[in-house]
Write a structure and sequence with these properties.
- The structure is a homodimer of 658-residue chains.
- The first copy, chain A, is an alpha/beta fold.
- Chain A is 43% helix and 14% strand.
- In chain A, strands 1, 2, 3, 4, 9, 10 and 11 form a seven-stranded mixed beta sheet that branches.
- In chain A, α1 (5-21) runs parallel beside α10.
- β5 (105-109) of chain A pairs antiparallel with β5 (105-109) of chain B.
- Chains A, B: One of its GO terms (biological process) is siRNA 3'-end processing.
- Chains A, B: Keywords: Cytoplasm, Exonuclease, Hydrolase, Metal-binding, Nuclease, Nucleus, RNA-binding.
């Protein structure tokens, strides 16, 4: 269903109930561009840390506009053993809603626009019919403005021109306006003495309107209603009506209701995001980091500077996220799926050993035909993302004894994939962990090389030709990371470079040390994976607390990690301070968190899901857990999380944050 | 006529001949926004100097996209005593033309987009069918790239991957690629021994393609044609063909021609601007400063930092400009025209004492109906701008003896309006003089006031309530210019403020002094209005000389103000060093340059065109001049300018720079 500015208000009820009824939601966004600085390939460097990636995307991607938002709700019908879907395709545009509302500027990137144009994207619909929106701060500013005006008013119209320093009494009327004001007074006196109900003054300046308001308020404290109106030419003029007290109150009440409605209209599409957030339901996306960042940035608050603050805001807005690209790149899927791009993934998940899910479009909704692709329409992309999730979730059910054909969106089996957002092109940190600390690979085999800007990849290959297979990840024009295949050659390479003049080689550890010296001290994860109550700074502070306010209203669900919710993030057999040790120990032979995910980017590892699963004895335990939790949706995830730790631990061997 | 990417090439000939045949051209541009920083009202402060205005527009307006360009050519048919028009409406979009071409980012301003959307603007046509373009530097870079590739080539395909440091000989092939390269060699050997003509390799990486090119070039120096081709999935692969020398040369020649055509396609819309520029014809626009800035910035070169450099580039690209808004705001029109907005102006110029011009649309061109407005379509706006110009020019003819109904675009009567671009909202500097120094009003009655950011206009009115009528021009949140009506009160106001704590008052002279201390030293106009050969710096240098190169090719027309053209800018009875003196003397009673134009923004002056004209005895002289010059188009404006000085001097009483 296409939703535009015109149809938005009438569709709201349908959308709200679709979200309420859903088992899970799938989302997708289309943007006016990807990077306003370095090329996208530079923006997604293979050696980025999650902090670096976040900081680059925040800096170079957030000034684009998310102008199409796809939402597809999936409701499972037990009796018919199939899903019913409702797909919405929202067009979004920050139409300035009044003279004083923010006049948003956004960037367009030619290549992105050209790409969308070639896919038949309808820009006219965006710019002519896009639904407006406000973030939290803009919304509350607007509410305050209305309130302030109302309380200042006392029925005297719109004194937005009254400055804080000016007095309310009879004002000093500048000489040159005295005649003008006297004529207005004469007109009002005439009005009061004749049978007319209303008199309209000529259009005049804001300052003159202010003089009129103040003079009339002082001279005629009762019996008048004064209002600023706009004519066809957008000129503002004052209309004065005779009213009794009842009438005046009624007019004020009407005005108040009109303003409330205007305000809701201005909040516009953000209301949909609030509803999704409030539902607390599983939100599925494909390669969704940018979608999540844009959604929060555009409809909630400017993104905080620090990654940890972003994670906290995100958990507040979207308490349960699942990225199908990360899922498809992880055991047991990564061995079966060769191409994790959305279109290819959807195709592969129709073939054995997977099964196309049974899905029907709800009545009154346009059905999408996956045979004739409508890729890059956000509503369609959200729809097939949901299909991919169902296929993969159901596939997990085939490992249960007895196998289950349907795995619910609430199943513990999919919890290991919660809140891990795919990180493009980072081989050894395949995901950003939104609900806990990130993986910290040692990168012992990585060198940081700086060189003249004339150098190309081939020069690096030549430089390292004696060191066997290397991988190059460019940082900028004059530096790159080079990964060696043999650890013992690292020191040799560093030593060699001491005599070089044109280039310089550092170990990754040296590079990180130098870097950290140059940046602010980062907030550290505490023993239990969460830091002490966060010492927020500046903008981040406001942003996070604005969202927290809303979260609190919603019933204290995973609002922010305060002391009493800490436990839910603590594992049974250890805590986060032990993580790096565990990892180092595991490196020598056994499985490690990194290894398990490294395959996502193509390198070979020895583990796979099928072998690890029985090892932990998890598979046999799971059916019961599954059956127990099948139809319960936890109000707080605390208990359930603790119960499932043993399970997921054995299964995926990734940090146990859930 | 609508011109898009698809129809552009086929329409080129029609456009070129329309420009060639025209008596004058009218242009208009539509942009994706106006200001990416301060509100437009701040951008056009009433006390801006031309330097300040230019610098603000350059800083805050140039990142928007000029995405629709209107060009209307006007040809006068003597025998039928009417104009024939050809209107073109170009859609423009910087579609990246290859992988390596610049991926332009541009800003959109919601309010501008919303406004255009409400006027029915077709964004889909811009983004899907917009004509691409390159500026001069991008064009020459591209030409160089092609040339470089050709010369490096010697028939060995596309070695764009060969870095400057790599050798041409047998290359060090990294271990892991050796198998791959050996398999390629086997395939080529098989090709040479079988009856096939061509073999296509599998898609591979850029580095692998480089290895293939170099290896094959070294191993098989003759008899092969190697080419990189793209498949449907946009993957690149190498195609190898057996060829003899003749065939190889033919293929190379074809490739060269294809590349030349590609290059021309990439230059795209800029070719139209080059043609306009080359024609040297009068280019008319309405309130055209932004149009001129955008056109130069987008299709020629990034705008230079200094205003003087901009003027020079502009005179090079558009040697004859005329702004109908400035014309309408000047004597003899300003007394007759109450509203100079384009739509209103067009309406008023149909009524007495003006006359709607006789204009017919050329065959094959869509005719515009001025009764049903299509305002803000660039082609239409250009068309009615041309109509306005004709009406006003013809009106000037009514003052001749005998009166003339038709005044040519080449007439001396309109020369006083050449190259003066309307400056929005600056009362005492109504225009930016592109071909000479700007007016320098003393602003003795102006105060610069700084104050707390809570202050509003009314606070300033209150502060100055003792000083009579004032005018306020906001600079930013905490400062504004305040013009007093009485000069003698200036010092009183300054003195008063010495005891104030919250605000501060400076004279305009003090403000300018402080400002100049903080900026670089500005290039000064010499005695004759032009500086010594300009000492350009950095970017400006490149920009200007790039355009000058093109200008020189066009036959040395007013390229840059060198010594031998200086005279044309010198007045008969004085020169620019005397200007400020003259002005000061004239202040006491007689006419002054500022006074004559101040009326443009509403203040009353004593002079008018009708009275000054006979005074100088100009009107009686003019018919002859007019008749003489009627059908001649001066190759250089030098002589003509000298001849007309006396005339224009008496006529408009503005600085005599032409």
């Amino acid at each position: 269903m296409e939703v535009t500015r015109q149809s938005f208000k009438d569709t709201l009820r349908v959308i709200y109930s679709a979200v309420d009824d859903a088992d899970f939601l799938a989302i997708d966004g289309e943007f006016s561009g990807l990077s306003d600085g370095p090329a996208v390939s530079m923006l997604t460097n293979g050696m980025d840390t999650p902090e670096e990636r976040y900081s680059k995307l925040r800096k170079h991607s957030m000034d684009f506009l998310l102008f199409q938002f796809g939402l597809c709700t999936f409701r499972y019908d037990q009796s018919r053993a199939q899903y019913f879907t409702k797909a919405f395709n929202f067009y979004i545009f920050p139409k300035p809603f009044s003279r004083s509302s923010p006049d948003i500027k956004f960037i367009c990137q030619s290549s992105s626009i050209e790409f969308l144009a070639s896919q038949g994207f309808d820009f006219n619909k965006v710019f002519r019919d896009g639904i407006p929106y406000l973030n939290q701060e803009e919304e509350s500013q607007l509410r305050e403005q209305y309130e302030e005006r109302r309380s200042q008013n006392n029925g005297v119209g719109t004194p937005s021109y009254i400055s804080p320093t000016s007095c309310k009494g009879p004002m000093n009327i500048p000489e040159e306006h005295k005649d003008f004001i006297n004529r207005v007074i004469e007109k009002v006196e005439a009005l009061l003495n004749n049978s007319e109900k209303t008199v309209s003054l000529e259009p005049c300046s804001g300052f003159q309107r202010k003089l009129i308001y103040q003079t009339l308020n002082w001279k005629f404290p009762k019996g008048l209603h004064i209002e600023t109106v706009e004519n066809d030419k957008k000129e503002r003029f004052i209309q004065i009506s005779k009213v009794d007290e009842d009438e005046r109150r009624r007019i004020e009440q009407q005005k108040h209701e009109r303003e409330q409605e205007e305000l809701n209209d201005a909040v516009g599409f953000s209301r949909i995001i609030h509803a999704i957030s409030k539902s607390g339901k599983l939100v599925v996306g494909h390669n969704m980091l940018l979608d999540v960042m844009h959604t929060i940035h555009q409809f909630y608050c400017p993104l905080p500077e620090e990654l940890d603050d972003f994670k906290e805001v995100t958990m507040c807005v979207f308490p349960r996220l699942l990225d199908t690209k990360l899922m498809a790149s992880t055991q047991p899927f990564k061995e079966l799926i060769t191409n994790t791009s959305l279109a290819e993934l959807e195709k592969q998940l129709k073939e054995k050993p997977f099964k196309a899910p049974k899905v029907e479009c709800s009545e009154g909704f346009q059905s999408y035909d996956t045979a004739s692709e409508q890729l890059h329409e956000a509503g369609y992309d959200a729809y097939i993302t949901g299909l991919c999730f169902i296929s993969m979730a159901n596939y997990l059910g085939s490992f249960l004894t007895p196998p289950r054909a349907h795995i619910s969106a609430r199943s513990k089996l999919i919890e290991p994939f919660y809140n891990k957002l795919f990180l493009m092109r980072v081989a050894d940190i395949p995901y950003m962990n939104i609900s806990g600390p990130d993986l910290q690979p040692k990168r012992d085999n990585v060198l940081y090389v700086t060189f003249p800007k004339e150098w190309k990849t081939s020069d690096l290959y030549q430089l390292f030709s004696a060191f066997g297979n290397i991988q190059v990840s460019w940082v900028d024009d004059t530096s790159a990371f080079v990964s060696l295949s043999q650890l013992e050659q690292v020191q040799i390479a560093v030593n060699t470079s001491q005599y070089a003049e044109s280039y310089r080689i550092q170990t990754y550890a040296e590079y990180m040390q130098a870097k950290q010296k140059n940046t602010h001290t980062h907030r550290k994860w505490g023993d239990d994976g969460w830091a002490e109550p966060p010492p927020y700074r500046g903008v981040a502070m406001t942003a996070v607390s604005a969202v927290q306010d809303r979260c609190t209203v919603r019933g204290k669900r995973s609002i922010s990690p305060t002391q009493d919710t800490h436990n839910s993030f603590t594992t049974a057999d250890g805590n986060w301070s032990d993580y790096s040790n565990t990892k180092r120990i595991k490196k020598d032979g056994a499985l490690s968190a990194d290894d398990s995910f490294a395959g996502a980017a193509g390198s070979k590892t020895t583990d796979d899901w099928l072998r690890t699963a029985p090892k932990g004895g998890a598979a046999s335990q799971r059916p019961e857990t599954e059956a127990q939790s099948e139809d319960t949706w936890p109000q707080s995830s605390t208990n359930q999380n603790q119960g499932s730790q043993a399970t997921s631990s054995g299964l995926f061997d990734v940090p146990q944050v859930w």
